[in-house]
Every structure is written in C-alpha cells, then in structure tokens.
Amino acid sequence: MTNEMLQTNDTNTSTTLAIRLLVAIEMSLKNWRLVMSPECGTRNRVKTVEAGNYFELEKAVAEARERFKLPPLTPIVFCYEAGRDGFYPYRRLTEVGHEVWVIDSASIEVSRRQKQAKSDGIDGDKLAELMQRKARGDKKALRLVRVPSLEVEDERLLPREREIILHDIGRLRNQIESILFTQGHRGIPKAAAALKAWVAEQGGLTPQLRERLGREIERLALLEAQLQKVERAMALKVRKEQSAGIAAVAGALMQLCGIGLIGAWVLSSEIFGWRQFRNRREVGAALGLAPTPYSSGQDVREQGISKAGNRRARSMLVELAWLWLRYQPGSALSQWFMARFSSGGKRMRRIGIVALARRLAVALWRYADQGVLPEGAKLKKGAAA
Questions:
Q1: Does residue 257 share a domain with residue 175?
Q2: How far apart are CA 131 and CA 23, in angstroms?
Q3: Residue 134 burial (CB < 10 Å; 0-12/13-18/19+)?
Q4: What domain range is 203 assigned to?
Q5: Model-level pTM?
Q6: Do residues 257 and 328 lie in contact, with contact meaning Cβ atoms separated by under 8 Å?
Q7: Cα dihedral angle (251, 319, 337, 343), rounded to 10 degrees?
Q8: Which pLDDT tens digit goes with each residue over 108-155?
Q9: Do 53 and 157 belong to one domain?
Q10: Number of domains in the chain
Q11: Who contacts 87 (Cβ-Cβ below 8 Å, separation ≥6)?
C-alpha cells in the first residue's frame, strides 16, 4: 500500500512539474541553427532550418519532442538574440502559444582570453547552456530584453527616420563642400535653395562640375523636404493625441521650458512613453547612465557610465541637459550643477553635464509618470500645470 501511494505521488509530481523543451536559435541571414534539449537535460539535438521558415521550425521542434520522448503538449521555450530580425519572431511564436526569451547579446558570457574561437555552433551551444542555467533558477544567466508592442514600434519610426535623414543631409553637405573646396571656394551656403542660387552666380565652374552640383543639390532639396514632412507629422500627432500614449507623454514633456518637439518625442517613444520603472536606478540603467566602478585590490577607479542602455535617449538627454541649464537656470538641478561644476574647467563641465543628464532623466521620469514637477522648474507660457 505504501509503495503504491509513493508511486501515485511520484506520478502526480511528475505531471505537475512539466518538463519544458528549450530551443536556442542562432540566427543568421540564410539559416537558423537550432540547439534543442529538455529542461535539465544533458543531450542536445542540433537542426538547421531556413531563416524565417516557421513551418520548418515547428517541424524540427516536433521531431525533437519525439526524439526526447516528451509528451505532445510539452511547453516550448525559444530563445534568440535581439538583432536584425527584431521582435517579429517573438510575436510570431508567442501568437502560437510558445514562450520566447529575447536576450541582449552583450549579456552572453565570453572568454577573457585574447583570442577566442567563434562560430555559429559555439554560439548556439553557449546559448543553450545559458538557457539551462536560467531554467534552473539562475536569474543572472541571461538578461531579457523588454519587448515593445507593435504600436510602440510604429511610434518610434518618425524620430528614427528623422535621425537617418539628418545623417544623410550632413553627409551630402560635406560631400558638396569637399567638391567645392578643391576649387578654392569657401563660405558655401547650407540650404539647397541658397546653394542653388550660389552655384548659378559662380562663373568659374566647369560644365561637368556644374552638372554634378545640380544633381547633388536636387538630392539635398529632396532630403530637406522629407525632413520637414517628418517634423510636421510629429507635431501633428502631439497636437491630436493628448489623452494617452506616446504622443501624450511627449506633449507633457514639451510643457517644460527647454524641451522641444524633437527631444520630447525621442524620450517618450524610446523610454518614458511605454517603459515602467520602479525606481531611479532602473531609469539610469535603462539609459546607460549607471556608473561602472573598477575595484581590484589596491586598484580603485571609476570607468565612467556604462553606455549599455538606449543610446538615442542617452544622447538626447545630454543635449537637453545643456538646454536645461540655459532655459531653467532657477531649477534645483541647474543650481546643483553650478555649485559643483561651474568653477571647474571644460573637462569638469563635460563630466558634470553627464551627471546632470542622469538626474534630469530621473526628474523627467517622475514628471511623466507621477506628474511631479522638477523642483524650481518653469512651464512654458500657456501650459497647464
């Protein structure tokens, strides 16, 4: 009787604690390498499928389930590095009912040797090993990425498109200046319309050079028109959507002196409009503004900020920190900066502006999330408190 009861209890326990099938995906442009193993298992099954072919992916997983003699309803956990494929595999697999871990590739442990062997096979095996550790309860084995919704990703497109257009405009202007510098010309206009009029007034340009400049100016005018169109679309969304969402958070940030349309939209779409934070440390870590101390024996030094977070929001916050000093001189943040860094040289002010950016990030998070106005900060004229 006792043995039967023990067997029954063991059966109930095994059915209650269902074993999951862990699938590590090493993604490349043409193929996906799958490394599959049961939870707490010691054997791996490796299969290569065509990249983006989810039918072959499901078929390979079903074959692995049969090979490991797992029940048909065994839960599947997929894991892949955030990269070129973005979050589409996550959404595609979660819609079917699978669990998906999207990880930061920088969180994968690497050897400290000077020369390291690297291949898709090594990376896939390492990812599968880390999945086993995380499944056993090691929380630091992998760092999962916060996956934004499809709507949030759509809202990000406008400021990121503007960033790309600005890069192309700068590259094209430098190219035009480089061409004209070789002919001894200086003081060249920046805008396409002014540059076109300037070229028409120059009489010493050769025919081929004049035709080349005409084509370059046409491309520059097109980029400038696209930039204006994107900025108008951003301003229109902020005016229309004042109730909720990323545009509403951007509109709230724009009420503060020193924060304009671009800065407010970047911060809201990248961080404050959809991420949830529990404390100021999480805000600093998400922006890569957390300190990275180095302490080993007698060697103690500070290595600066980690730069492991969102680079777009971080660079925008540093830019807004300078504007904050200009337009919010009476705020507590500006007073803190002036008391601590104003007497130093250029290097100290550059260090201090990063520290101010971190404090400003925390203050703006509290303002956007809790409605707490930064101490001593001023609102724009006509803005609601």
A1: no
A2: 8
A3: buried
A4: 150-240
A5: 0.82
A6: yes
A7: -150
A8: 777 777 677 778 788 888 899 999 999 998 888 888 999 999 999 999
A9: no
A10: 3
A11: 102, 147, 148, 153
